[in-house]
Amino acid sequence: MTGSYFTKIFGSSPFAPMQQHMSIATECVQELEALFSAVIEGNTSEFKSLYKRISKLEQKADRLKKELRMNMPKGLFMPVSRRDLLELLAVQDSLANTTKDIAGLILGRKLKLPEQLAEKYVVYVKRCIETAEQAKKVIDELDELVETGFRGREVIFVEKIITKLDKLEKETDKLEIKIRSMLFKIEADLPPVDVMFLYKIIDKTGDIGDLAQKVGSRVELLLAR
User: Residue 178 contacts by C-beta under 8 Å, 6 or more apart in sequence?
Assistant: First the structure.
């Protein structure tokens, strides 16, 4: 009964909804580029519009996550356990949640990005988005991995995608360190509470890269098993 219900909602492949969920989460992350552009430009109406869009995407991802959790059969005959899939799903979902957290912090505090950080921060955000997009490429290969029994050329192909993902995440780490250093140099000229929240936003932006890498790491564990 559960299995047929799952198939009715999500199709014949249990990986299709996982890929759909990752697509929504990535779309949510991609909105960060326009969001920070609106912050830098001081475009409040555009920022609020983007915040609403991010919120809707996060809610959409959350609804799909709940449907997956409730309806995924416990006895899937696959080389991947239900628990592994649900853990991977949780990491994917955190991408959307973190994006909404970033937008919410900026909105709640009415924060402005210091002019000295603006140019470098745009590069930082774009690189974090690239990590999420690279992680999506990993998830897009789940069907092929299952069809090939997690062996052969497909595994080598996915490992190359994950290697690039790891490289992108390391680049986001370097950019984060640079931006934190830049903020440290000017923090005495800014309101202390704003400084505290700016550091928090920098950290959460970096979390996007970390979470994207975790998606790749989770799939690597599937390959190892």
Answer: 120
